[in-house]
Write a structure and sequence with these properties.
InterPro entries: DUF1853. The chain is of the alpha/beta class. The chain has five helices and nine strands; from the N terminus they run ααββββααβββαββ. The mean pLDDT is 94.
Length: 268
Amino acid sequence: MNSNLNLQYQGYLKTPNLWNGHLVYNLQQLECISEINSSFNETLPKNIRLGKRVEQFVFHELKQLPQISILAENLQIQQEKRTLGEMDMLLLMDNKPIHLEIIYKFYVYDDTVGTTQLDHWIGPNRKDSLVEKLNKLKNKQLPLLYLPETLTYLQKHNLEIEKIEQNVLFKAQLFVPYNIKTIDFKPINPACIAGFYLKKETLIAFDNCKFYIPSKANWLLETQVQSNWMTYDTFLIKVHLILEKQTSPLVWIKHPNGEINKCFIVWW
């Protein structure tokens, strides 16, 4: 289990930021130069969901950096017994206070959705989108800092609200349509492209390949040669059952020459 957790952590570390600086929605990415290649030696609850798993990876990574000290993790903002929201992190970087929100997403590019480049990035099940997440950050998550109820927490740490900078750590794996021509991704970081996606009908193009379906926690991983590879026919049966539930699985496709691709098979 620990070796697997470590592979997930290494996959997280190698995932680039979705944009640089504050090019998107004027949201500033956390800029801390980290050459750390540490291992993850903590334990996590067995069924912790992917977003929370990544939060723990971020906390662990930032704790290794000498310029950072963490003041609070998963800070619940409450009004009497009602929870108004949660701030992912309060930290000091070079003694500068920062409110940090952490996001790790998987998006596919569909130019039939919306009208702008940012509109075209949606969740593989079409249930969410990049623009929805950006709006939630801008209008709901980051404004938590300025609620009267938050002041109590800030005073505990002797923080002055006007001196706190707001940053995001927004990482993503992006998937483009199979055999697509060149796309201008600006202002998105093209280094986030992790693979492609296709519909079940196109799978016939890979009938001489082998397949592996990682668990959702292992979506973070870089592809692994040593996996329980399935034949095309076995894979078709399994993937059909998943697609019937209107779920788009992430799969690894191993070609006869040994090359391995990451790919979403979409149900829509």
